[in-house]
Amino acid sequence: MDKKTTARPHFHGHRERLRKRFDEAGAEALADYELLELILFRAIPRRDVKALAKTLIEKFGDFPAVLAAEPDRLIEIPGISTAVAREIKIIRAAGLKMQKESLQSQPVISSWSALERYCRSLLAHEKREQFRVLFLDKKNRLIADEQQNQGTVDHTPVYPREVMRRALELGSSAVILVHNHPSGDPTPSAADIETTKKIIDAGKPLHVKVHDHIIVGKTMTTSFKSLQLI
Does the chain have fewer CB atoms within 10 Å around its N or its C terminus? Predict the structure, then answer.
């Protein structure tokens, strides 16, 4: 009796070719949806995921936006299970951790481009306004990055005394303020300027300096220091 041969699924060859292209040319040689496919390969081993990757990019806009999407929004997409959403979030968490540890290895204010990349990765795709504080030591190295508050799409309550209380707890001598504008426009508002002034004033008697306030938009960031607002 002849042995029956089992044909390999057609997408296996595609997976091998895509992995080989990544190995030989790197991520720069891949489209966003192809890079996303490589992530989905691990979580969905037995089906073609090209169409699913393209759907995710179309739904959320680009590769970083897919990684930043909340799990409950990801699982709204047919084909994305809780396990797949978790895999996507693990990849994002790993990337953020790598960027954060890179910041901790050198004075933050001397590596503006790395700081800007980290802030954008963290906040550019957030749907609600979030206010964070980077606490620095005397050598301007990162001690901690903490979310102080999260608000609505256009407002986050910030309490200067709480920012300074936390700075003292951590032994921080300087801070960098960071928040996002979900509208996409990183232009400082009158409220942003007033809040920054209050935090600066709260820090003066405690010898805690505010080095900068960075606002993260969809594709750009704004620095209060570069605008001479600090």
Answer: N
What residues does each domain of the chain span? 11-96, 108-223
Q: Considering the entire predicted model, what is its pTM?
A: 0.73
Per CATH, the number for 108-223 is 3.40.140.10
DSSP 182: T
Pick the CATH number of 11-96 from 1.10.150, 1.20.144, 3.30.60, 3.30.420: 1.10.150
User: With contact defined as beta carbons under 8 Å apart, do 209 and 201 qualify?
Assistant: no
For residue range 62-109, what is the model confidence (pLDDT) as tens digits? 898 899 889 999 999 999 999 999 999 999 999 888 888 877 767 777
> In angstroms, rounded to a whole number, what is the distance separating the alpha carbons of residues 101 and 147?
17
Q: Which residues, in sequence order, are bridge partners of residue 174?
A: 136, 209
Tell me the pLDDT tens digit for each residue of 12-22.
Answer: 678 888 888 88
Query: Beta partners for 184?
Result: none
